[in-house]
Specification:
Shape: globular
Strand content: 35-45%
Number of helices: 4
Number of strands: 8
Order of helices and strands: HHEEHEEEEEEH
Helix content: 25-40%
Number of domains: 1
CATH topology: Nuclear Transport Factor 2, Chain: A
Distance between the termini: 40 Å
Length: about 140
């Protein structure tokens, strides 16, 4: 089995580069992602990649910086700071938030269970209200 931290970091690097083919290849065919802040459960690599592409359309310069990492057996836990500028529309189930031109900096935790050398399950924790306040979609302090 591959080092789960390296597998997880590799997936983040592929997201940062917008390498969707590489990102997809870092996931098992039955991968799932729970994006708790948006209440989305993404099933299959195509759904996971499509969600990542959506974030990149809204924040084309989005990148995650891994601040710390730890592993237990086949699971990696990454503390990440996501940063980017909302120069594209943020499309969600409640509608579209037009591009604000504002920058965001958001701490998150990304937990990836690894099978072999690929991610099988991801649990992504971040504070959506803070992100929405940073882009001006909700009043500051509402989070």
């Amino acid at each position: 089995m591959a080092d789960p931290i390296e597998v997880a970091k590799g997936a983040i690097e592929k997201f940062n580069a917008g390498d969707w083919k590489g990102f997809r290849s870092a996931l098992t065919p039955d991968t799932v992602e729970d994006e708790f802040a948006t209440q989305r459960r993404l099933e299959g690599p195509e759904a996971v990649v499509a969600a990542a592409e959506g974030w990149k359309r809204a924040f084309p310069d989005a990148h995650g910086t891994v601040r710390s990492a730890m592993a237990s057996e086949n699971t990696a836990i990454l503390e990440i700071t996501w940063e980017g500028t909302q120069t594209g529309d943020l499309v969600g189930p409640q509608g579209t938030i037009p591009a604000s031109g504002r920058q965001v900096s958001l701490p998150a935790v990304w937990v990836m269970e690894v099978e072999g050398d690929k991610g099988k399950a991801v649990r992504h924790y971040f504070d959506l209200m803070t992100l929405l306040a940073q882009i001006g979609a909700v009043p500051a302090g509402a989070s």
